[in-house]
């Protein structure tokens, strides 16, 4: 049992969600920045539609709480978390497109391409992706330019060809989109498509805190375990969850013919795997003592979530 009660954890999660929402609102305002020529209304409205008023903001929360282990100023961690959330929201816009998962519903309302059109959705995703790198390089994040460089490089690698984007194409290949019978490595797909951004939320705190090699590795191991637990919980929700709670149709993976942890391990096997991952996550950050209590609670939240 961690030293953080469920109610305290929920308050911290909600506080970070509120702070992230307010920060994203400012970052996505119509105010034109230096070197920008204009912020087209249709584009900004679309970016706001898919970024504001929704989500638990788990990824920014992981940045804030992993950074808090090292006493990093909350404002700096929130900026990095906002950059990460921009990447996450862009990925959801593009995942929902007809050429990808072809989803009509996201967070209980029409997906962006249904609300607007495919072209607007694609460009809104592009806008959020590039805005993320504007944010993560800002001077107020850290006085040391090398820290900002490391944050930026890590974000690019977790979001790009060796991370989320690469994982997405492997996931599509697993559905048979490109012909052939390529072997499906569900764990590898998860590490890249879903786990990489969650892992970034954890290692970003270590980078901000200029952690030792041992401390960085602890948060890296924690992030990998948490990322896999998140995906297995997601797979279980797709089978056992309620569409109203999920804010999207249940059974979508089965409809697309996806191979998941549940199809490979079975429901009980998947639940046992989550328990093993929780133990790994808990052990990884135990070196931080009581400072790790919120992170340990976060792993349990991920494993036990209902939406």
Give an overview of the whole structure.
- This protein is mostly helical and 307 residues long.
- The protein is built from 14 helices and two strands, in the order ααααββαααααααααα.
- Strands 1-2 form a two-stranded antiparallel sheet.
- A hairpin with a 2-residue loop joins strand 1 and strand 2 (109-110).
- The radius of gyration is 19 Å and the shape is globular.
- The mean pLDDT is 92.
Query: Strand sequence of the main sheet, in spatial order?
Result: 1-2
What spatial form do the alpha-carbon principal axes imply? globular
* Helix vs. strand class: mainly alpha
Order of helices and strands: HHHHEEHHHHHHHHHH
Major sheet: 2 strands, antiparallel
Number of helices: 14
- The average pLDDT score comes to 92
- Residue share in helices? 55-70%
Strand content: under 5%
Oligomer: single chain
Question: Can you summarize this structure?
Answer:
The protein is an all-alpha fold.
Structural descriptors:
307 residues, two-stranded antiparallel sheet, mainly alpha, 14 helices, 2 strands
Draw up the topology in text.
Blueprint: H1 6-27, H2 41-51, H3 58-68, H4 74-95, E1 105-106, E2 109-110, H5 112-115, H6 118-136, H7 145-159, H8 164-174, H9 186-208, H10 213-240, H11 243-246, H12 252-256, H13 261-284, H14 293-304
Antiparallel strand pairs: 1-2
